[in-house]
Amino acid sequence: MPGKMANAASPEAYLTGLDGWRAAVVRALREAVRNSATLDERIKWGHLVYTANGPVCLIRAEPACVLFGFWRGQRLRGIEPRLAPGGKYEMATLELRDGDAIASAIVHALVKEAVALNAALGDPTDLSLAKGKATSDRPGTGG
């Protein structure tokens, strides 16, 4: 399997290109994400991307792991401490390897909070909105 499914024309085609434990992990994550909120699902940057008022999360199968990432993931570490900060915006990702798991209830909580943050704060990729926004700007985020 290539590192990224750049040629996948649809989410279903992306899944068809996977096998083994990565396929099982991606299918389980996809199902949990899709059952968590009303999101637009598409292939972008060669992997699954979910949006609601801007990008919310991604699922990317790589040769040795599956990445589950959130554009505002640094604000979600209270829900899932394994989210590792990195990249642009407030990105944080969880690296799942063969044998690793994440409970559907945690996925639901992460996605719901990420969607709520986008609703409250706007598109996380709109840097003009990021100026002056602190974690404490949203009630209940513990900032």
By helix and strand content, what is the structural category? alpha+beta
Biggest β-sheet: strands ordered side by side in the sheet: 1-2-3-4-6-5
Helix content, binned percent? 25-40%
What is the third-level CATH name, the topology? Aspartate Aminotransferase, domain 1
Mean model confidence by pLDDT: 88
Tally the beta strands: 6
> What is the general shape?
globular
User: What is the CATH top level name?
Assistant: Alpha Beta
Distance from N terminus to C terminus (CA atoms, Å) equals 41 Å
Whole-number tally of structural domains? 1
Number of helices: 4
What string gives the helices and strands in order?
A: HHEEEEEEHH
Q: What are the segments in which pLDDT stays under 50 over at least 5 consecutive residues?
A: 1-5, 131-143
Strand fraction equals 15-25%
- Main sheet record: 6 strands, antiparallel
The CATH architecture comes to Alpha-Beta Complex
Rg, Cα atoms, Å: 15 Å
